[in-house]
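Sorry to interrupt, but I need a hand with the structure work. Could you write out one complete protein record for me, on any chain you like? Just paste the record in under my message, thanks.

. . .
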Amino acid sequence: ITGLLIAALTVEADPSGWIVSEVARGDSWVSPYWGYCAPKIATDGIAYYTVGLWGDSPETSHGTVYKRQDGVWIEGAELPGVYQPPVVMLDSAGRVIVIYNQWEKPILILRGRSPGAIDAFDTLPPHPDMSNAFYPGAAIQGDTLYFAFCSTPSYTMYLSSLDLGALKWSPLVTMEEGQVEKKPKTAWTYPILLPDANGVHVVASNCPDGGDENSYNIV
């Protein structure tokens, strides 16, 4: 994708209502907002946060963290080795959480060292039983980060949660065992997570031809 434009629609105190704001331009091998299931923009009521995905191939791709404040987009940290576009959220203290995967590796979870920071992050531990994580979905409720993902080669979908205070993961829950030996395959992807006071709700899509045409037949 050449001459890519990343834009964000933001509601600001302006008589015209919606404002279309350009974040950055560049080249990317895929849409920087691929992965509609997980949040790609977040706001604390003062600023907006997002991540761009740049690079002309999966091998050269990287991310850049951006922050919009006082009508201006500011460039922050560069994230190496990004495969699928990062998930962007805020924790209960207003710190930016960025989650992204690398090819055939566990996820990377970054947390801003202070509220609103986009240039200094700490790396939080991935789940100890995670070998890789594709099609990630995530959500935060209080100090709990819920995370669902598909693991290859089996295409099994798992769910877990991370205590952001103690930095301890709950055991992996198998939501659906993958089956990819014959079609139609069982390959759950793109989990949408919505936590509430009692736990978390999950919506996923099944790929009967996962890895080939990546169409969907069941929600």
Remarks:
- The two ends are 29 Å apart (CA to CA).
- Confidence is low (pLDDT under 50) at residues 1-5.
